[in-house]
Amino acid sequence: MTWRDSNIHNRILRDAEAGKYGVIAAIAYNIEQILGLVQAANTARSPLIIQFFPWAIEASNGLLVRTAADAAKHADVPISIHLDHAQSEAMIKRAADTLPFDSIMVDMSHYEKETNLAKTRELVEYCNQREIATEAEPGRIEGGEDGVMDTAGLQACMTTPEEVEEFVGTGVDALAPAFGNVHGEYGPRGPDLDFERFNQIRSHANGRVRLAVHGTNGFAPELLQRCVEAGVTKINVNRLVLDDYYDHLRVSVGKMPHTQLIEEGIQKVADLTVKWMEICGSAGKA
Ligand SMILES: [Zn+2]
What we know:
Elements: H1 3-6, H2 8-19, E1 23-27, H3 31-44, E2 48-52, H4 54-60, H5 63-73, E3 79-86, H6 89-98, E4 103-106, H7 113-129, E5 133-136, H8 161-168, E6 174-175, H9 195-205, E7 210-213, H10 221-230, E8 234-237, H11 239-252, H12 258-280
Parallel strand pairs: 1-2, 1-8, 2-3, 3-4, 4-5, 5-6, 6-7, 7-8
């Protein structure tokens, strides 16, 4: 067995593909959220991916990532640690060299395609030499999120089957295609995904990489289930699992002891995450 097969992130997504369910890949910003996510995975008997924006590394000098890895190690279920949208060579090397990531998204989508491919290939190899799995973004997903470079001004472009081929060739383990999904918030019309395009992408990928959906803020359960049915295994979520936590803070801060505020906050994250694990079909699968 090679490192690629035993890598926990790859294992979680391969099992999801075989079992036809989606795994929640949740962004965490603080320790309460990490604790709530892990509690949800334990409660639901579900695999989980905890992911961070590069912001978390900068803001805590890596402490949040090490904390999550420690929590994952002590969980009863498989949990992997992923870096979302690492957009500079320096950040990718820092993460791969100094932090316990199981997977890193090598996001060079702000470059033109040839440069994107060349840099992706080189950085995927760098990560692989350290037994870290990788994800890339063929095409360009619209919008920006928490320190991730906004693509406004750059043309967002839907992923083509040709790009799938090119990116599979870089050696990545997962792809995050652009098929109408948007980072950040959708406008009043809500998400409008191109499933026909997604099906083409999936058939071209032909089981060589796992597929991720990015930009799920405001998704209805039915839409996420449709993504899972179409073959998405990595479900990137942000507000879908964190909204109740922020509502709780808004309503309760200053009105209860700080310890209670924190404990109830953890529970809010856990409860909402369990709900989405059930929707994605991963509950009971770990
Ligand atoms: Zn994304």
